[in-house]
Amino acid sequence: CPSNKGGIIWYNQCLLYISTIKEKIPIKTNYKNIFSMHNPNNVRGDAKLFAMRAMDFLSELILKVEKTTKYRLIFYSAGEKKLGKNKLYAMVQCLDLRIDCKRCLAWSITKLFKNDNIKQGARVLGTDCNVRYELYPFLRS
């Protein structure tokens, strides 16, 4: 990565972050370079109740976030929860180099349901953290 460049690739289960930019650690969270992707299917039934339960579940996952590797670079939590007739699958993750991982994750969760855009699945991807939920399993056990 010549000339202070970097890159990030998001996979279903992890992210790859490479940078040659010299920054002081811990790094301030970047709330500008994010984007959202939504499942095209709308939620059936009470969408606002679904959104509230999904946000609660994602918030529970944030409380369980732990360092996942011996190198202590990634915070991660995933799980599944029964919501009526459906199961909700979700994960949250962020880089340890950031000042406040959990705040980044909480902020990202609010972006999932922005403008009452409530879908069967969605993700918010950023350089510092990302969150995802779906009504189908997307992670390997």
TrEMBL record:
Keyword terms: Repeat, Secreted, Signal
Record PROSITE patterns: GNK2 (PS51473)
Gnk2-homologous domain span: 31-138
Keyword Signal: yes
Record's subcellular location: Secreted
A Pfam family recorded for this sequence: Stress-antifung
Main location per the UniProt record: secreted
InterPro entries reported for this sequence: CRR_secretory_protein, GNK2, GNK2_sf
Protein family: Belongs to the cysteine-rich repeat secretory protein family.
Designated name of the protein: Gnk2-homologous domain-containing protein
Organism: Brassica cretica (Mustard)
